[in-house]
Amino acid sequence: MTRVPARTLDFFDRHVVQHIVEKYGFDELQAIKAFISSETYAMLQDPELELYKVSPLIIFDMWESEQVTGNPRNSLYLRADEV
User: Fold this and answer.
1) Which residue of 34, 41, 72, 73 shows the fewest CB atoms closer than 10 Å?
2) Which domain of life does the UniProt lineage start with (predicted)?
3) Which residues have a Cβ under 8 Å from the Cβ of 70 and sit 6 or more positions away?
């Protein structure tokens, strides 16, 4: 099975973590832990979902949705009923 390249994940890590720090006031280590332990991050790592092709802002929105609702699939970017 192919994997999402580490360089690609690093790109998303940097951008999403920065948004978490800026919006929620987490320190960088807290933000990294919150992101990489999330279902959103697991979905980003799945090459079949091809989430590495979307903007880091969409991944951040998915992470926020997961924090609020418990499910990153509740992001407006993924919900078909809102399109």
Assistant:
1) 73
2) Bacteria
3) none
Q: Where are the domains of the chain?
A: 6-78
Asked if 3 and 47 count as a contact pair (C-beta separation under 8 A), the reply is yes
Residue-wise pLDDT for 35-66, tens only, equals: 999 999 999 999 999 999 999 999 999 999 99
C-alpha pair distances (Å), 60 with each of 15, 47, 51, 63, 64: 9, 18, 12, 5, 6
Are 48 and 16 spatial neighbours (Cβ–Cβ below 8 Å)? no
Tokens of 42: 């697991």
